[in-house]
Amino acid sequence: MANHQNTRSGNLLRLFAHLAAHRRSGATDAALGTLLAFVAGAVNAGGFIAIGKYTSHMTGILSAMADDAALGGFGFAAIGLLALACFTAGAGASAILINWGRRNVRSRQYVYPLFLEAVLLICFAAAGLLQPAAFIAVAAPLLCFVMGLQNATITKISGARVRTTHVTGMVTDIGIELGKCAYWNQGGDPRKLRVRPNLTKLVILSQMVGMFFAGGVIGAIGYGFFGYAFSVPIAALLLAMVLPVIIRSHHAII
Q1: What is the mean predicted confidence (pLDDT) over 230-236?
Q2: pLDDT in tens, 165-194
Q3: CA distance 29 to 175
Q4: CB 18 within 8 A of CB 248
């Protein structure tokens, strides 16, 4: 029993050490997506506790912009536009970093945006603790940039199969697979293709939604108790993903 547990723990550690590697597999994509969903949930819910704004989903921000513009609240609409622009800029920064890495240091191509996300979360914590009054004005745009950075990174890594910062698409895909599970294949032309659910996809998406929720709970509690400082352990989780890749590629160069 002990040997079995040690073997399982060793496999998990090896998987964790390859989460940000440039050679991908379905298992590493699923594990990375699940962990990043946790991070997104923590930052999104925790950010709301810290600064009173949700920063991961642009649907709500764009809808609020439309309402503000219709009601004459052009100042609030401009703030929403800034958040949208920062999310877009974060996604663009991810594409730049990954493509630069792919052309120059292929083994680290996915490390750079995740490392940048960790650094920005540490800066978020430090600035919030040192200058809380002045920092509140730029906190929401910064978190929007972080969420755009992360969402684009997992999109690039997984070939657009996985996104982590908004749940709407994941819940939609879960509903589609559940519909396939409920579909009755009897009758009709037997030569036609049978409807078959993708159970692996259903499990992965369900895990990601669950982890987004769990991250939200922990983030809300953490930011509620520790404030901006709770960004540091979230950043540490990201660093734990990228440091093994940095160390391996550094040894390979030497």
Answers
A1: 92
A2: 667 778 888 999 999 888 877 766 666 677
A3: 21
A4: no
With H, G, I as helix, E, B as strand and everything else as coil, classify residue 191: coil
What SS3 state is found at 182?
A: helix
Q: Check if the beta carbon of residue 139 is closer than 8 Å to that of residue 123.
A: no
Cα→Cα distances 169→13, 176, 210, Å: 30, 11, 14
Domain boundaries, the chain: 26-253
Q: Quote the DSSP letter at residue 107.
A: G
- CA distances, 118 to each of 27, 96, 220, 237 (Å): 23, 17, 19, 8
Q: Is the pLDDT of residue 145 over 50?
A: yes
Query: DSSP 3-state assignment of 80?
Result: helix
Cα dihedral sign, 92-234-206-64: negative
Q: Which amino acid does the sequence have at 208?
A: M
What is the DSSP secondary-structure string of 71-86? TT-HHHHHHHHHHHHH
